[in-house]
């Protein structure tokens, strides 16, 4: 399968390309034709890079078991940007994978001062119930909380014997005023990534961690540390994939702490309407001008919503792209369309969420 | 009770006195008359200093519950120096205390590279079985391993949020090449000390940690950290007592890694004989000279054995002191006496040890 057109702005942005080259991340594109059923996020190059994904792909092709590891930081609300990872997990769940979901309550405590009790509540109501509603079968995932997972913390401590302060400082920029929990925390992160490879958890085996490129330093450190403990644990260096971050609606980075930048899965119709109406677009100052000269979807945050979420069907996406560029559909009309699609989507999601919540509460009680 | 004589060299050495003044450690002596049944180690000023012991003493007098916390590092063998702490624990067990015994297997791993399995074996065979044989009822102690005590590690992480790298560096001298496990480890130590005060462990309540003065930095940090978490945990600042370190037989510091410096509880008669014969004394070059001028027990490592362990009866100790000073008993004779006492002691101990071992194995299996 080769994609000729670039209607989703799939050329790798320059800043990403630089990081890829500097740190040895390979373009995901080169693997696409080998993947039997690539996910739309792969086809649209939203997943644009990887490290050692070949070994995961081999496991997929041979029907062999592998692990997928991801974490959630239970602060704030789940937005569409978070959904990108869940979409991938659902795809992996269709293959023979063990999915590990880590609730980073220690990180939430260390970085944001959120208590462990608050974290548990947030994790269930804002994240896990949404995951289940989206179609991830949580019954088949290994869900755990960092604060109560003894194996992970024990591993973190063991691994931290061969990582020194200078290394951590170089990666994370620690200084004298850094707290000891900040300094130790990355080791927990690394133990999260590597623990599916402990014998007691079914390892060693290929593991993939789907992340945004901003998470790459953790992955590099995890791979370094894994290689330092070959004798003890026989770790297979973890693989990773890199997806673009869904940009914020307003032009800024999407963030849970600035609600206007993101659509939350629990937003009301009114909120959806307001946020999309105020979104940054690739339109021109006047409607007349835009009808004449056309809009620019590559700059448009509403168009991103179509690409990432609202229009999984390529034909329909191309149609919107064409209507925008030709000036046949201007921003107001386009936003109305996006609002309708989003409302429909969230309406259905709300029903699923309500059904999921009590189930997920039960699942998490056992964790 | 006032002690006029100083036959056990109880004047506080100058280097201790300096530390006491600089860091605010009070002389234990001032409390002695308030203690209903002071331990011989207290009467002989081997326990010479304390911080806030008054609140533990008050609990003792009122028959109220308090906690005693100590740890053992499972590397090497248990020697008579280690026994000092156990003697104190047995005394505390006679009062209404909860004794917490921490097996510092994470420290053994971090500092000495000893695996967690090895640690478990050492802890039982070299330490805990000896403790039980000495008379500490382990059935009534809270024994735990750092590596498997979730509550302690969780607490360590929570507390580490309000301790920064500069502080730790100032206390422990960390540098760039320090490993993250070294940097994090003191927080586990502090969590060990404070966790008997968590609600789930029966706290908050007075806690005492009997230590050698070299351990004081941990105690100071533990108290600082406790005061930073008043709101969350309502900690009572932990109390501590300070005992002299039993000096090594040869003149050097006593150490498990230099067997000639210490009597181990598992030493054979031949080893005891050889070690005491070779011990450093306060004798003079020739027997004739010593008969004439007398020896100096304050310089003698064999005399220390009498003071710390072999002659709990003050009258008998004074007698040896007098015989030495007057030249009536010279080193060879005195060593023979010490060897006989030590052999008798260890002979009896061996029988108790053999009885204790299977019991202690059972107790630890449940931990």
Number of DSSP helical runs of chain A: 16
Largest sheet entry of chain A: 7 strands, mixed
Which two chains form the greatest contact, residue counts included? A-B, 31 and 31 residues
Low-pLDDT stretches of chain A: 1-7
Reported by name, the CATH topology of the largest domain in chain A is: Rossmann fold
Strand-pairing-aware structural class of chain A: alpha/beta
CATH-assigned homologous superfamily of the largest domain in chain A: HUPs
Return the average pLDDT of chain A rounded to an integer.
91
Radius of gyration of chain A: 21 Å
Oligomer designation:
homodimer
CATH architecture of the largest domain in chain A: 3-Layer(aba) Sandwich
Tell me what portion of residues of chain A adopts beta-strand conformation.
5-15%
Question: Distance between the terminal alpha carbons of chain A, to the nearest Å?
Answer: 42 Å
Number of strands of chain A: 7
Task: Please write the string of helix (H) and strand (E) elements of chain A.
Answer: HEHEHEHEHHEHHHEHHEHHHHH
* Overall 3D form of chain A: globular
Organism (chains A, B): Hadarchaeum yellowstonense
GO biological process, one term (chains A, B): tryptophanyl-tRNA aminoacylation
Enzyme class (chains A, B): ligase
Subcellular location (chains A, B): Cytoplasm
Note down, in words, how this protein is organized.
2 copies of one chain form a homodimer. Helices cover about 50% and strands about 10% of the residues of chain A. By secondary structure, chain A is an alpha/beta fold. Chain A has 2 domains: about 15-245, HUPs (Rossmann fold), CATH 3.40.50.620; about 260-350, Tyrosyl-Transfer RNA Synthetase (Orthogonal Bundle), CATH 1.10.240. In chain A, strands 1-2-7-6-3-4-5 form a 7-stranded mixed sheet, with helices on both faces. Chain A is globular and about 70 Å long. The two termini of chain A are about 40 Å apart. The relative contact order of chain A is 0.13. Mean pLDDT of chain A is about 90; it is low at about 1-5. The interface between A and B is medium-sized, with 31 and 31 residues.
């Amino acid at each position: 399968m080769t994609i000729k057109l670039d209607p989703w702005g799939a050329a790798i942005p320059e800043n990403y390309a630089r990081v890829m080259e500097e740190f040895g991340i390979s373009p995901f594109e080169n693997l696409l034709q080998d993947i039997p059923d690539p996910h739309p996020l792969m086809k649209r190059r939203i997943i644009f890079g990887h490290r050692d994904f070949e070994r995961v792909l081999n496991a997929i092709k041979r029907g062999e078991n592998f692990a997928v590891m991801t974490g959630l930081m239970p602060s704030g609300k789940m937005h569409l940007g978070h959904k990108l990872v869940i979409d991938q997990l659902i795809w992996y769940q269709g293959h023979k994978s063990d999915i590990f979901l880590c609730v980073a309550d220690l990180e939430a405590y260390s970085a944001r001062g959120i208590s462990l009790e608050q974290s548990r509540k947030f994790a269930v109501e804002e994240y896990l119930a949404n995951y289940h509603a989206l179609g991830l079968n949580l019954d088949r995932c290994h869900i755990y909380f960092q604060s109560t997972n003894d194996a992970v913390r024990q591993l973190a401590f063991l691994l931290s014997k061969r990582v020194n302060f200078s290394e951590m400082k170089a990666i994370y920029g620690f200084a004298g005023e850094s707290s000891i929990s900040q300094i130790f925390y990355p080791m927990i992160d690394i133990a999260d990534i590597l623990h599916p490879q402990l014998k007691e958890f079914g390892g060693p085996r290929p593991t993939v961690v789907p992340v945004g490129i901003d998470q790459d330093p953790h992955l590099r450190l995890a791979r370094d540390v894994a290689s330092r403990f070959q004798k003890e644990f026989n770790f297979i260096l973890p693989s990773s994939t890199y997806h673009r971050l869904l940009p914020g609606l307003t032009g800024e980075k999407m963030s849970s702490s600035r609600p206007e930048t993101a659509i939350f899965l629990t937003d009301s119709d009114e909120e959806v309407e307001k946020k999309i109406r105020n979104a940054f677009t690739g339109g021109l100052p006047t409607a007349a001008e835009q009808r004449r000269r056309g809009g620019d979807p590559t700059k448009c945050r509403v168009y991103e919503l179509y690409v990432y979420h609202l229009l999984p069907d390529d034909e329909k996406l191309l149609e919107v792209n064409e209507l925008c560029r030709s000036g046949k559909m201007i921003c107001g009309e386009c936003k109305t369309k996006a609002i309708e699609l989003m409302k429909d989507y969230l309406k259905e999601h709300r029903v699923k969420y309500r059904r999921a919540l009590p189930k997920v509460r039960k699942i998490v009680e056992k964790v």
